[in-house]
Structures are given as structure tokens and as C-alpha cells.
Amino acid sequence: MAALLRSVECVRSFGYSPVSFLSCLRSSVGRLPRRCAARCLTTLVSSRLFATESVQKQVQFSQPRFTRDVDGGGGGAVKKLDRALYRLDVEVRKTGRISLRDVQEIFSEIKGAGAASVTQSLLAIRCCGSLLPEELPKNRIALVTDIWNTLRSLDVRLDVSHYNALLKVYLENEHEFSPTDFLSEMESNKVEPNRVTYQRLIGRFCQQGDIAGASKILDYMKAKDLPINENVFNFLIQGHSRSGDMVSAKCILDVMRTAKLEPSADTYTYLMRSYAETGDIDGIRQAIREAESGEVFLLDRDYMEVLLALAASGRSEFVDEILGKMRKQVGYNQDVINAILQLVNIGQVDVAYKLLLTMSKPVTLDGGAIFTGQFFIRQMVKVETPVQKIIEICDDLKSRSLNSIGLLRATECSLVFDKTDYAEIFLKALHEQGADVRPHYFWPILVSHAKRLNEKGIYETLALMVSLNSMATLETFLDYVFPAISLRDVDSVIQKLKDLGYTEKAIVAPLVMQLVINKELATASRLARQCQVGFVPLSAVRSLAIAYVTTDDLDSTLDLLVRMSESREQNQRIDYVGLFLVNYLNANGGQVGKVEILLGGCKSNNLSISRANSELLQSQIGRQGSPQLLALLDELISPHLHAGDEEGETGGTIQHPRNMSLNELEAHYIELKAKNMNTRGILRRLLFQNCRFKNMERTMEIKAELDDCKFVYTPAMYAQLMDLFTAHDRLEDALRFYEQTFELDPDFPMDDHKVLNLSALLVKSGKLDEAVKMISENNSKHGVREDRESLSANVWRLLNAAATQGDVEAVQRLFDLVVANFGYCPVTNSILGPTVKAYLVRDDVEGALKQFEHCCKVYRCTPLKNELFIKLIRLEDAEKLQRVVDLGTEVHGEMNTMYDLAFAFLDCNQVRQARRILETPGIRARHQRLDSMCEKYVAENKVTSMENVVSITRDLFDIDRDQMYYYLLRVYAKGDDVDKALGVWTALQEENVQPSDRTLLFLGDFLKRHNRPVPFEIPEVPVSKTSVEKDKQHNAKLQQFVEALRNNDATVAMNFKRELESRGLQISILNLSSLIEVLLKENRIDESLAIANELFEKKTVPHSRTLKHLLHSLAAVGDVDNIRSIGNHLSDTAKVNFRLKNHLSVALVESGRHMELLESMEKNSSDSLNIPSGVGILRLLERHPELSDRVERLAAKYAQYDVHGPLNMVWMHHFAKGNYEKADEIFKSTPEFQDRLMYVHVLDTAAASSDEGMLRRLVDTVKDAKLTSRSKGVVYSNLIDVLCKKSKPDEAAKTFDEATQLGLTPDDFNRATLNRFQRSLEQNGRPVPFKMPSGGSTVATESFSSSSDSDNSDDERK
């Protein structure tokens, strides 16, 4: 083939006719069988350089799955590398890109291991293409060349898949290479090209506009009977375009239709890009019209490629027209980021900025703003965009309220990239804008000058600091200036620095310390004596000791010790001399020969040491010391000094029982009992803990011991016992302890979740009225005390207990009582599910559908939607099915609903209908349900169905294509179809999918068993049993595990988990997260935490919702240590997103360590990034009102740093307690509350007690503020709810009129409120003064937090 390509040069010399080429192509394609031609459509376009979905298609990384089929395997290095590959997989699926650092880490791991598997080497190559949009193509090519040469030097077997991957990278970077030489290298290494190789070589010729070269390969493919697919046609469009023949490029579409291949969105994108490269906007418009008329759906990423091509060709005037075509679908923000990075690389900054402004504004999980464009600023600095342009864009972002720290970000990036010239200009700009330019901003600049031995640059930087009012600190001089300049003439250095504007005191203190470090004690002593300035002695003690050991300069050392003792400014009692002596003994190896001389000098200079350091010195000196030396030590002791141990004394204190784990409590109990000591307190704690963990048998043993010693139980203990018996379905015992609780204390505040759990057991036992009475009585005493979200599971159990009996009326009665009236939890799909389930249990489909419609209209929720889909599909009731689809679309959008419908068809084994739905562009993958269906097809040996699934899921967003092909391999293996199985390997290359070790192991073993050559290196993983039968058994167990999770059966699920792991099977993060949630529902916190820790050890984290639930549960029981432990596994951004500091503060309060929380906050009051600003402060105020004055002072101090969350909590606390004057004083003194105010706690308090007066005061507070209309609508909604509840329709109507006069519309109110208000008016014969909003949107209770202070570079998320 290489020789054949060399003849192309001769063909070019005779001329070439595109028309004849097209005729040839028509004839060759026309002879392809229709089925074969259709199969060829499952390839990918080579030039998708940025879109999230397209990048996912180009390179699919697969988490190593061989652990499902093997036991043991690999050392630590392999596991580390596999974990790194998995992280890359997650990043690609999420953002469509990876960083250069990620690739370099993988490359370093391979070089360090001295070997690489097929999977690892392929991945390393593929990462050097479009997945690195922030890098220039030349840098990516240099990287892949280095990787390729390294792999060859390591003797890694490079098969055709590696060469094809390299070709793909060359194409993505438009790298100039010789296809002839490339094929020659393959031939010399005895690697046979396949159809993917030839397709990509055609792509290279077409990139060069070389149709003659492409034709030679086409002729060769024809001779070899290799199929010509859509990829080839797309390349040819590009080839004709770049050869200047747009007519022939357009004709390719007709050729495709002749070959029975309809042009796809990829084809039209290639055509539009070709027009864009020539600046033909009319051609682009025509192509768009043709695509639309042919019902070809063009995605945002398709238009973005056109935009890139226009910008690259200098036709930015047409960019706005293309932007107008964007639909901003799922993944739009990430696609935009990748496009912007490329635009900045080619110098099209204005177009990039225009694209940035089209992104949806990102927010944090709690609604706070995220700074927009951090990545954009970073990239501009990286590629050295003109500095004034960067400043201009940063200023514009600030003026648009999109990014107030843009210039600071630019400064940071310039320092990171060692662009000191840029950094200095940015720092000057910051100063001109009034920003506080701090000394540590200059440290990287000083380091850069030091590396270059540029002493002049260091002085210039110090001068710049002076001009920007950012004087160098002691730390700056000591760590970054003096170590990098010559100190031979210290007087000259001092004069130079004084000339720059620094005071002698600021210079000499660090200079003396540096001279001590340099062991120039005489100079240091002279300078300290001459300038009469003190310095920070503690940091110089060790340096002085080391210097004295080296120089033996006693006089200078004693002089400096005197200066140190005179410099006790911060702490008059610290024993610097004693610390020096201790460090001296350590530095000289414990030799005491000169210690007596030192002590004599100390005595003559009136220096003293502490008793603690004297004793320490005596113990170190031991028998080496003379009586005179020991006597000198005693003489030097001063009672006014301490040893200077900043950490304080440590001792073997006994841990308090409240901080002990269950096992520690048991051990402590045994110890106390053995010593015949009082065990009542520890037994009480053990009772609480065993009740908490639902250990019935051990609890009864403990209770028996307490009964024997005539222990007097508290109401709280009886409540715990009640909850324990409730969990074990022992109703009579639970009710007995319930009654005993209130006999001891009629006003005892029973926990809401305990009341709800016992009520659910009553309903389950057919005692509905008793359950209603119990809930009502407890609510009337104290309202809802616990966090509403945490009660959702308890409310669901209560409602589900009635729903499983098919009692529709009971479910509705309980729902109205617990959710609608008392507000125990927010309304969600889960909570509404039992209201629909009750009808389905009765087989009342029409009733279920009506209830489902009610939930959609009133609550914007779709409970049991999938169950309804399946039920109606099986009943073949198309009319009702369409109703569910329409209702689901109103709530979740068309794409989400159609996807759910598709999988419902798959569940019903109606593949054709599912295929039609899944072919809709833009639909994401749902892995768990898809895996379940594929397992079913494999088990039933449905080859065609499995092929259809592989085909129809190809374009799904976030689909794991390796997983799909693995299922296809398994079904081919069951039928012993070797040729089709081998075709899977080629198809993987064609789609540019990264095969996992598991896939290669399976295919390699299958080929060897049928005596067929294996065209790749089989990963060296020890395989125990790879039979399909074992695989079937494993998956059956996995299915049973998933079923247990669906049934909320934690015990069964845990048993299956242990069994699966004992067999070496891997459980997905999603399933483990579900298991954690199921355990948390049963309050089995320790087991949940153990599973979470297993995930942390694997460098992964549970699902975000699960982790939030776990942190909430740990906070509720005051588990401070485990919350901190979790924090060690989270990034700074994740800590903010999961509100770790607030969970930690709640835990400290709940564990009785509130003073530790308060003192920590007071100590770090200037650290605005680590302030718990939410429920933690509120909980502290509620539990310990005696500390309110200290908390208020602290909150006021925080407000000085523009952090108003704590003060907002103080305001809420006073307002909820009825201290309105104090609350108004805080509100009026804080202008920031006019724009952002958190008030949910006030609403909860008022709603729980139906406090109309509190709500009216809150209305008066917010109505004149500058809050959004929806924020005000939330407050008015709550007031109207209370008025309707109190049967005051006239006052409710008056309140509604007042709100509308403020400019509020019905859309600003809670839809459920409007429904309740409407019913109240109609029941009382009053007119309804509003029209219900169409479609309706439930306004959730909004909690507007203070602006985020975090610098989140990963900011543009949608």
C-alpha cells in the first residue's frame, strides 16, 4: 500500500478530474450491500474538536472492569494507574476535556512502572488530541510524540489500534505527516492496517485537499472489499472544499443518497464548516435549510464547529448569526468552555468573549453566585493575550456583575505561569482600582527573579511594592528577599532598601535573622546592637543554636540572646534562653562540654530559664553534667517563665463517654465493672447508643442491669426505647414506652421522627385514628422541631404504610395532616408516590392517573411515573400513556420524559419503539437501567436486540460504549460467532472507544478458545474463572442486591454486599450510594459511614445527595470527628458545595462542644473563608441563648469582612423568638439585607405555630426591600396559607391585593398556596381575584445566601 501511495505524485502531474472520481465512488459504493452500508454508519467524525458529547464519542475511557471477572490482580502501581484512568473517565464525561497535568501524571506513572498495558498505552495516546483544548496543537503533538517514543522504548506491543489512535490524534491536531511513511512504518513493524487505518489516511489527504491521494486509498479499499461508510464521505466533503471545489463537495451528499446513506448532522456540519472556511455564509444558510427540511437535527455543538471555522477564517462578522441558532441544550456551558479555549488559542478573543456571555450564569448548590469566566481569564494569560485586552475584559465582566475578582484572577494566573511582566501590570491595575494589594502577591515574582539570579529585579519589585502601598513584611524579607541577594555589605543593603522607602526597623529585624541563619553571628550581633531594634526571637532560636555549634562565637551568641530576651513583646513569659539551650544540645548531638560556659555567660548577662526547660536540660545532660553545671541550671531558674510549648501540655486524659464509640463504651464498662466502680452512667450511655443502632438483644441486657440497680429512667430514655421497639415492629411495647414517657413529663418534646415512625406502625396495624391523634397531639405541643428534609423518609414510611393496603382515603388523610397542614417535610416525588400507589394497589388505573395529574399540576412532581408507563404499555392504552407523557413533559421537559418512556418500552421488551425514542438527539444515558436491560438480552441470547441497543445508544450523552460492546461480545460468545466478535474490536477503533481490560480479556480468551489469532496484546491479569456461567451467577447476585435496595431492605442489601465483595465483584458508586441512603433511613449511621470511607479510600466519593444526607445525619448526632474526617477527602470547592463548615458547626453544638465552636470562630474572625454562616450559628443561638451577646459581636465583626451570613442568622433568631425590636435594629443597620435575606427559619417557625403576627411582621420587613418578587412571594404565600388555615378568606384576599399592588403576579406565589386560596374563596362564596398560571411552577422556599467568597475556577457548570 505504501508503494501504491508513492504513485500518487505521478497522478498529480497528469491532472485529476473530480467528476470521474465521483463516478468511480458511486460505482464502488453502489455495489455495497444495503445492510453493510447501513452498518458503516456507526463511525465518528474526526474533527469534533470541542463538544462534550462529541469528545465523548471520539474518546471513551472505560473504568477498568476486570475486577468483576478476576480475583486478585495487580500491584499498588497498577491500581493507582487504574484509579487515575477512572478519574479521567469521569472528567471527560462531565466536561469533555482533561488537563495537561492529568495526562502528564498518567505518563509519569507509565514511565515509573516501566511498562504499560494495552488499555493504558491507548489512553495515553488518545489523551493528546481534542481532549486538551487549552493546549496548542504543536504542544499536543510534541506530547504524543514523546509518549509514542517512550512506549516503543519500553517494548510495549503496539498493534493496529495504537496506530489508529495515533492517526486520530494527528487528524485532530491537523499535524502534517506523510501517509506513505506512516504505512511504511506499520509494514516494517509487521502491523496490518485495517479499515479504520485507511479511513483516517483518507482524512489526512482530505485535510490537505489532496483528492488524488484519497482516491488511491479508496481504490485500495475497494479492491480489499472494505466498506466505505459515512466517515469517508464526510472526509471527502472536506477534501473537495480544501482543494477549492465546493461544487464537488456539495455533490458528495447526492453520492451518499445514491448509496442509500442519508446525510446526517455530522455530514451537514462538515459541509457548513467547508463553507465557513471559504466565508460563504449563503452556503451555510442553505445547508441549514436543507438539514431542517430533511428533518436532520443540528445540535449546538454542530453550530459551534461552524462558529470556530468562521472565526479561524477571519469571518467573525457572521458569528452573531450562528449564535442565534444555539438552543443551549444539556452540556451547552461545557461545550462553550471548550470552544472558548480554542478561540483564545487562535487569537479570537473577542469572539470567545461573545460566546462566554451566552452561557447561563452558574450558581452554587445553595443559590450563591459563582464568578463567571475564570477559565477564560486563565487561558488569555496562558497564551499571552495582550495585557490591556485582558484588563478590558476583566473590567467589563465586573461591570456586568459577572466577576468582581477577574483582575485578581488574572494576577494569580500570571504568577502561576511565571509571567512577571503581566503580573506587575495587573498589580498596578488592581491598585488603581482601589483593591488591597497584599505583600504575598509579590512572592512568586520575587521567586522568579531569584531563580534567574536577578538581584536588580528583586529591588525593582520591592520598589513596586512601595509604590503600591504594599510594604514588604518580615516574612517577605526573610523568605524571599534576603536569601536571594548578596549580603556581603549589609550597610549597603540597608541603605538601598531605605532609599526605596523602607524603615530601618522593618529592614534590620529580618536582616539580623537572616544573618543568624547564614551563621554570620558577629555581623548579626553588631547590627542588632547598632540599630537597637528587636526582632521575632522564637523563629530564630533554632537557627542561633545551629549557628553557635558551627561558629563557636560565644560573645555574639550571648549578645543576641540578650536582645531576644529584651524583645518579649508578644509574650513576656516565653523562655527563649531555655529553648536555645535545648536546641543547642540537640544540634551538637548531646555533647555538654560547652554548656557550662554557655550557662556561665547567661548568668553574667542576667539571663534566666524556666523550671520546665531546666528539668528538660537536666534530663538530657544526665550523668554527663558536673555538680557545678547542675547548680548553674538551678540558679538560672525563673518562676515567671514557661517552656514556650505552643501546643500546651499533653497528658493521658481519659476520653469522655459521650465521645466514645460503641466498642469503646463496652470496653470502658467492662473495666469499670472489674474495678467495682459505679457503672450507672456508662450503662445509660450504652442504652442510648444501642437503641440508636437498633441492637435489640444488647439493649434488653442493659435495661435488665439498670432495672436491677433500681435505675430511674428519664423521659428521653423511654423515648429511645420506644423508637427501638418501633423499628422492630413491636407495637405494644413501643406504645407502653410512649405512654411512660409522657407520664414522667407531659410536656416532653418527643422527636418528630420517632412520632412519625410509631404512627406508621400504627397505620400498618390498622389503627389509623390512633396515628392521626398521636401526630396531632405532638404537633400541637411544639410544632415541627426537626429539619424538614431529614423527616422526608419518615413521612414516606407513614404514607406508604397506608398505600400498601390500597387505602386511598387513609393516604390522603395522612398527607393532608402531615404534609399540607403541619408541614413535616417538603413535597417531593417520593412523598407523593404513596398517593398514586394506593390506586395502583387497588388496580384503579384511572384513579392513579387522575392523582398523578393532580400532582403534576399542583406540585410540579411526577410520582411513580415509570410505574405508570409500564402499566399502560402492558395494557396497550395509548390514550392514557400519551396523557402521562404530556404531563411528564410539562414538568421535566420533552427529552427527559421521552427517555423515561424509551426505557419503559425496553422494560416491556418493545425494542422497536424504544429505538425510535432513543434516536432523538440530546438524550443522556441512564446506566443502571440500561445495564439491567442488556443483562436480560444476554441471558435470553437475543443477539438482534443486543445489536439494536448498541446501535441506538451510540449518540446518547454519557453512554459507556465499552460497556455496550462488552454486552454484545458476551451475546456473540454465547452463540460462538467468532467473526462477529472479532468485528467488535474493529468497531471499537472505528468509534474511537477505549476498550477496558475486561473487554480485551474476554475477547482474547474467546478468540484463543476458538484457535483464532488475537490481533492485540491480552492484558496480563490473573483470571480465576471467566466462563459465561460464572458471569451469569455474578450478575444474578448483583440484580438481587439492586432489588434489595429498591425495597429499602438494608439488612438484605448488606448481606449481598458482603457476598459480592467476597467474590471479588465490584459494586458501582451509584449502588453503594443507594445503600448508604437505605442504611441512613434506618439510622444505621456507623455502617453508612464505613461504606463512605471505603469509597474515600478508593479516591472516589458517594453521590452528592447521599453525601449531603450522611453529613446531615452525622451533624444531627454530633459526630464531629467523622465530619472532619470526611472533609479531609473533599476538595475546597466540594467543602463549600456540601456546606461542610455548617455541618461541622451543628455537630459541635449537638455534641455539647459549643464553646469549642464559639472560641474557634472568635479566634479566626478575620478568616472569612472559614466562617460557618448558616444553620450552625442558628443552632448555637437556639441551644445556648446565654451566648447570644458573644455571637452577635462576632457576627458584627464578620460583617466588616463583607460576610453577612452570621448576622443574618442572628436576625432570624431574634425574629423567630419574637424579639422584633432587636431584629429590626439589625435589619436597618445592614444595607446588604435589602438585596439578599435568608428567612426560612422564620417561615418554618411561623408556619409550625400558625403565627399570623410573625408572618405579618415579616411581610412588613421584606415588602419595601429590594428582594426579588419571588422572594417576597414566598413570604406572602406563607401568610395567605395561615389565613386560609384559620378560615380568614377576606383577610387572605386583602393580603393578596396588597401583594399585587407591590407588583407581584400569580407566578410569584406558591402554586399550592394559590390552589388552597382558591378553594377557600370558592367555599366561602368569594370571587377569585386571579387566574391560575398556565403550566404553573411551584415557588420553593428561597434561601438567598451571601455572595460566595470562593474562587471557583471550575465555574461554568450547567
Radius of gyration: 37 Å
The overall average pLDDT, rounded, is 80
Q: Report on the biggest sheet.
A: none
* Secondary-structure-derived class: mainly alpha
Annotation field: number of helices: 75
Strand content: under 5%
Residues in helix, %: 55-70%
Oligomer: single chain
List the helices and strands and how they pair.
Elements: H1 2-6, H2 8-13, H3 18-30, H4 34-39, H5 52-58, H6 76-95, H7 100-113, H8 118-126, H9 137-153, H10 160-172, H11 179-188, H12 195-207, H13 211-223, H14 230-242, H15 246-258, H16 265-277, H17 281-293, H18 300-312, H19 319-323, H20 332-345, H21 349-356, H22 374-382, H23 387-399, H24 406-416, H25 420-432, H26 443-451, H27 455-467, H28 474-481, H29 490-500, H30 504-517, H31 521-531, H32 541-551, H33 554-566, H34 576-587, H35 595-604, H36 611-621, H37 627-635, H38 662-674, H39 680-692, H40 696-708, H41 715-727, H42 731-744, H43 752-764, H44 768-782, H45 792-803, H46 808-821, H47 829-841, H48 845-859, H49 865-875, H50 878-892, H51 894-907, H52 911-918, H53 927-939, H54 943-952, H55 961-974, H56 978-990, H57 997-1009, H58 1028-1046, H59 1050-1062, H60 1069-1081, H61 1085-1097, H62 1104-1116, H63 1120-1127, H64 1132-1137, H65 1140-1150, H66 1154-1163, H67 1175-1183, H68 1188-1199, H69 1205-1216, H70 1220-1228, H71 1240-1249, H72 1252-1262, H73 1269-1285, H74 1289-1301, H75 1311-1323
